[in-house]
Design brief:
This protein is mainly β. The protein contains 1 helix and 13 strands. Strand 3 and strand 4 form a beta hairpin. It comes from Hydrogenovibrio crunogenus (strain DSM 25203 / XCL-2).
Length: about 180
């Protein structure tokens, strides 16, 4: 089943504990740095397979930025806060600020990759951080099984065009024929 744009959510973290007696919660954040999760409000919190909206009233980094605590609107005591432990925290894509590149890495997952010659190379399944240049893992089913190709994400050298709206990436890359010697 295709999900509509309205159904898309970006998971930023999870509530993983309670803090104090006034309803504050501890957050495991996937953002970098961790406290960047506090830049977004409202949060969508998944409670028993249902997304609920919460405004972030206050928040701060703890232990030198290693953990984050937040006070959410409507959660005013320790017992109520405890009910949210384990719940995912998400935002809607439109809450993200614009980027210089015009896209986020997560938007590349699922994009169809084609070479300048028009060859279908497969779909982006992962972005691998290598230090020098991040790398797209592109996978395609073939007669020989699943073919995985790694393409360095270097704009204008290997990556010629990225269109996240149509989920298309054009690359200057050729698959090597495994039968050639």
């Amino acid at each position: 089943m295709m999900s509509s744009k309205q159904d898309e959510k970006i998971i930023l973290g999870q509530i993983n504990g309670i803090y104090g007696v006034q309803g504050w919660v501890k957050i495991f954040s996937h953002t970098d740095p961790r406290q960047n999760i506090l830049s977004y409000s409202p949060w969508l919190v998944k409670v028993k397979n249902e997304w609920r909206t919460f405004q972030v009233e206050e928040g701060r980094a703890q232990q030198g930025g290693k953990s984050v605590v937040a006070k959410l609107e409507g959660i005013d005591d320790r017992d109520l806060a405890r009910e949210y432990i384990g719940c995912e925290i998400a935002i809607l894509p439109e809450q993200l600020p614009a980027t210089e590149e015009g896209f986020y890495w997560m938007q590349l997952i699922g994009c169809q990759v084609t070479s300048v010659e028009g060859e279908d190379l497969g779909q982006v399944t992962e972005i691998v951080e290598t230090g020098a240049h991040d790398v797209l893992r592109v996978e395609k089913q073939s007669d020989a099984g699943l073919v995985s190709t790694l393409i360095p994400f270097v704009m204008e050298t290997f990556i010629l065009d990225v269109d996240v709206e149509s989920k298309q990436i054009q690359v200057d890359w050729q698959l090597e024929d495994a039968t050639e010697s």
